[in-house]
Design goal:
The protein is mainly alpha-helical. Helix content is 75%, strand content 0%. It is built from 2 helices and no strands.
């Protein structure tokens, strides 16, 4: 694993991008469940993005 330094603006951009992806994944999960489809992959992806978002909250 490599450590990088980012500015406050870059960090905010990363947080926003991850948050937007989480919202898209939540929407996709809802749609998949409404259609009776397997959403397990999306649920795992959501957990991973949540971990990334939590890690970014403590960055800098």
């Amino acid at each position: 694993m490599k450590t990088i330094k980012v500015t406050e603006k870059e960090l905010a951009t990363l947080k926003s991008a991850v948050w937007a992806q989480l919202q898209n994944i939540n929407r996709d999960i809802r749609i998949a469940q409404e259609k009776g489809r397997d959403a397990s992959f999306l649920l795992e992806l959501k957990r991973e993005f949540e971990e990334v978002f939590e890690a970014l909250k403590y960055a800098n």
